[in-house]
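User: structure tokens for this one?
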Amino acid sequence: MLSFDQVDVAIAGVQILRQISFSIEPAETVALIGRNGAGKTTTLKSVMGLTQVRGTIRFDGKDLTAVAPAKRPRLGIGYAPEDRRLFSAFSVEENILMPGQVAGYSDAQLQAGLDRAYDILPELKALARRPAGMVSGGQGKMVALGRALMIGSRLIMLDEPFQGLAPALASRYAEALRALRDRDREVTLIITESNPGLLRRFADRALVIERGEVREGELDAEKVDA
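Assistant:
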């Protein structure tokens, strides 16, 4: 499904990823665990084409470095960044629909993606007409997940989805991820976290990133210090 082969990434002259190699199989849920600054976000951004990569990243056997960043979501890749990146003047529903519209989805495909998002996150339907700039931080995390669901038919990547969430919202977000896993069993999930314990109930395995290098890890490990 997704593989990194000897991938290096440097940003502003600073080496972030160092010859990382790993692979993720179809339908796996993988926790990418690491301290702040370890390279978790850079790893996800590299899949989306938002970094300069040396090495090879493959998705379904296709070399992603040969695919323009704007075309990568059309492969079925959904991405929810840590800072949500919502368009505050647009409604919640408009934010959810946007990646499908950019990808040139038909009306039927857009409706199917919207139905999927509302099925997994029914609370978003009640917020559909509200400007995204008027939702809470926790609700914004849900909107970002809904937007990733619009287009993430093969792979969904979630960057620090639990960060800053109150316990009740963190529990609700975890329920939504379990609902996604139960509903769409063929979708691959990558979730970054500093606390592997939050993901042990539904992640299949963990990868640990430290000093820009990746190794196999344990979901029952103690919290990684931020």
